[in-house]
Design goal:
alpha+beta, 7-stranded mixed sheet, single chain, flat, 13 helices, 474 residues
Length: 474
């Protein structure tokens, strides 16, 4: 097979698998690649979904006006990783990782950096897999293995999380470890899906290096012959009931449950925090990822209210009040999401407050007071919207939003969403935050949703990636 044709097919399969896999681990994700096959080859770019659009000046200066990126040839079959930030190629909104090897001299992979990611570490490990597979395919040049390459990249979440944890523990000095990460991750996913009397698990499970157990403050320990295996998910699930909603934790050495403890944990310990329908994985005090529905995810499960913050900055409200109102909205939205019920916040930024149909209050609730803010969060359970004023007070609840039909209505989104579209289309100074129990948060103004996700076109089969200089000039 001709070299150009092999490049096209190889990169196409890698792009397909990488985008699909990352889009299940994170929100819909794009991928891009800049590479040079030989030490003197001109750089080429594969960016079928426009991830690098707008970064042309940076790429021109880095790749066209300089040859420093080429580096030295890598001997043997070694894969030398390149951290983009250390190499001076950090791009806003993108995660990047590169590599050099003998089969393909240079490659730099890019993907989306989404707001609200727990850590970019697992995603970088995913890019490392793509770089390794590309080097491997260029070394053996076996067309029969190319489709398998794409399938491998589709299902790397557990491996990426595991490898990132191993790398970080090694960086902390834990090269010689007795803790096996894969069994622990399997146990976490198994326990998270195991119900006890209809209830999802809550509580914390901590894995401590066996050599550090003497520093653990145990409340009680299980006899050696009665210590449950970590893989016995039903038994672990039952014992988690003893540490629900408390400062206590279940302690394991990575194989068995040893007992219940309190206080700080030693070394590079791992924590699985079960929170009902979802949970979080920690390495010491660093959040690694979340888990839900039998899989790991990059999201920290906090609402992304960047669009709301931008809209508040455009108002004539004092800067301090903008900041406070943003904090109030953030707290209310996250609390509602955690309780798994929806609500609607109507934020009235006008000097003259709008009169809304609903339940009014003799004295508005001052949302700067923590007690009254908690009451407002409870009122969000009622049908209807909460009416927040620019004075940082709650003026009504169970409020109704009405208006004439507007373009962009979506019957699949329900009454909250469509009512907010109609209502904001007729009131200029109104911002609406719609929190659905089963969907992301929507920010709506002027009859339009500002948080609507774009659908990226699929990479598909491509011609040979163009030269980087031609792509920049086009």
């Amino acid at each position: 097979m001709e070299t150009a044709s092999f490049e096209n097919i190889c990169i196409s399969h890698l792009m397909d698998g990488l985008c699909d896999g990352l889009s299940h681990f994170s929100p819909p994700s794009r991928a891009a690649l800049i590479y040079a096959v030989g030490p003197d080859s001109p750089p080429r770019i594969s960016d079928p979904q426009g991830l690098l659009d707008g970064h042309e000046p940076k790429l021109r200066d880095y790749y066209i006006y300089s040859n420093a990126w080429r580096g030295k040839a890598v001997p043997g079959r070694h894969l030398e990783l390149i951290e983009a930030a250390e190499a001076g190629l950090d791009l806003a909104g993108a995660i990047a990782l590169g590599a050099r090897s003998t089969p393909i001299h240079y490659q730099m992979w890019f993907t989306d950096e989404h707001p609200g990611m727990c850590s970019v570490g697992p995603t970088k490990r995913w890019l490392e897999y793509a770089a390794g597979l590309m080097s491997q395919n260029f070394a053996i040049r076996d067309v029969m293995s190319l489709e398998t390459t794409g399938f491998v990249l589709q299902h790397c979440a557990t491996h990426a999380v595991r490898d990132y944890i191993v790398d970080e523990r090694s960086r902390m000095g834990w090269l010689d470890t007795h803790v096996r990460i894969y069994p622990f991750l399997d146990a976490v996913l198994g326990v998270s899906g195991t119900q006890e009397e209809g209830a999802r698990p809550r509580g914390r499970l901590v894995v401590v290096e066996p050599g550090q157990l003497a520093q653990v403050r145990f409340i009680c320990r299980f006899p050696a012959h009665e210590q449950p295996m970590l893989g016995h998910r039903k038994h672990v699930r039952k014992l988690l009931q003893a540490v629900e909603d408390s400062g206590r934790v279940l302690v394991s050495d990575g194989e068995r449950l040893l007992g219940i403890a309190i206080g700080a944990m030693p070394g590079a310990y791992l924590t699985a925090q079960f929170s009902g329908t979802h949970g979080f994985l920690w390495l010491r005090d660093e959040l690694v990822c979340s888990f839900q529905d039998g899989g790991f995810h990059s999201s920290n499960r906090r609402a992304n209210l960047v669009h709301l913050e931008e809209l508040l900055l455009e108002t004539d409200m004092p800067m301090e009040d903008q900041h406070t109102l943003m904090q109030i909205a953030q707290l209310m939205v996250n609390r509602v999401r955690d309780r798994k019920h929806g609500c609607t916040l109507v934020i009235d930024t006008g000097e003259e407050r709008l009169h809304m149909s609903g339940q009014h209050l003799e004295q508005p609730l001052d949302l700067r007071d923590s007690g009254q803010l908690k009451l407002a969060c409870s009122l969000a359970k009622l049908d209807g919207a909460l009416h927040l004023g620019r004075d940082l007070k709650l003026h009504g609840f169970a409020c109704l939003m009405d208006g004439r039909a507007v373009p962009g209505e979506n019957r699949a989104r329900g009454a909250r969403y469509n009512s907010a579209l109609r209502f904001t289309a007729e009131h200029e100074d109104i911002l609406v935050v719609v929190v659905s129990s089963d969907r992301p948060v929507s920010i709506i103004k002027g009859g339009m949703e500002l948080t609507a996700a774009c659908r990226f076109r699929q990479p598909g089969r491509m011609a040979r990636p163009p030269l980087l200089v031609e792509w920049i000039m086009s």
